[in-house]
Amino acid sequence: MATEDKTKLKGKNAFDMFPDIMGNAPEAKKTVKKPPSSPNTSLDKKPEPVYAPVFPPEPPDSRLLLQGDEGAHGDISDAQIALVLMQEGENKIRVKEAFEELGYLVESSGTPREAIEKMKIINVTSVVLQPDFEAKGLADSTFHEHMKWLPMSQRRQIFYVLIGPQFHTLYDLEALVESANLVVNERDIGKLPVILRKGFQDYDNLFGPYIAFLEKYGKK
C-alpha cells in the first residue's frame, strides 16, 4: 500500500472505512461520573458514641437520717479531747456543749498556729473547724491545710468535722472532697450530739476493722 494511502487511513476504524458493510457506528456509552466522596460524609464512618452525663448523688435529707434519735445522747467515751476552732458566739457555745454532753473535754485556740502547736502536746481525738475561723476562708486555711497533710498514722486517729452554712449535713461525698470525716450545716447545730453519734458510728463501721488490724500488728 502506498504511503499516501496509509496517511489517509491513519486514525480511522472499520466503521469509517466500510460504512456500507459495518452499518452505523454504535453510540458511545454514557458514563456517569461519581462525585468525589467527602472525607466527612463517608458511608464507612461510624457515628460518634454518645455518653450520658454522670452526676454525683444528691445530699441526704438529714431530717430523715436523724428522725427518732432525739434521745440518743449517751456518752461516747471517757477523757477524749475535742479541739473546737470557731469564732466566738452562740454557735461555738452550742458546739462545745454538744461535745461535753458526749463526754469530751473541750479545748479551743485563738489562732491556727496556736491550734497546730496544741495538737503537738495533747492527744486530740476530734477537731471542729469553722471555715471563717480564719479570715481567708477554707480554701487558703492554714489549719485546714495542716489537717490534710497530717501523717496517716496520726490523721486516722482524729475525727475531723467541718461546720458552716455551705455544707450539707451528713453528706459523705462532700466530707470526702474536703478531706474531713463529717460536714454539718450550721442550722443543724441543735442536733449536733445526734449527728456526732451517727458520724462516729459510720466511721467505726468503715475504718474500725482496719484500725484494729493495724494496732494488732504494731502499725498504728
Please explain how this structure is put together:
It is a single chain. This protein is of the alpha/beta class. The protein has a domain at 76-216: Response regulator (Rossmann fold, 3-Layer(aba) Sandwich), CATH 3.40.50. It is built from ten helices and five strands. Strands 2-1-3-4-5 form a five-stranded parallel β-sheet, sandwiched between helices. Mean pLDDT is 79; it is low at 71-77.
Considering the chains and any ligands shown, give keywords for the structure.
38% helix, 220 residues, alpha/beta, five-stranded parallel beta sheet, Rossmann fold
Short description:
The protein has 220 residues and is of the alpha/beta class. The chain is built from ten helices and five strands, in the order ααααβαβαβααβαβα. It has a domain at 76-216: Rossmann fold, CATH 3.40.50.2300.
Given the structure, what is the number of helices?
10
Strand tally? 5
Looking at the structure, the CATH topology of the domain at 76-216 is Rossmann fold
Computed CA radius of gyration, to the nearest angstrom: 41 Å
How much of the sequence is in beta strands?
5-15%
Regarding CATH, which class of the domain at 76-216? Alpha Beta
Tell me the name of the CATH homologous superfamily of the domain at 76-216. Answer: Response regulator
N-C termini distance: 114 Å
The helix/strand class is alpha/beta
Pick out the low-confidence regions. 71-77
Mean pLDDT: 79
Strand order of the largest sheet: 2-1-3-4-5
The main β sheet shows up as: 5 strands, parallel
CATH architecture of the domain at 76-216: 3-Layer(aba) Sandwich
Element-by-element helix/strand order = HHHHEHEHEHHEHEH
The helix content is: 25-40%
| Shape label | elongated
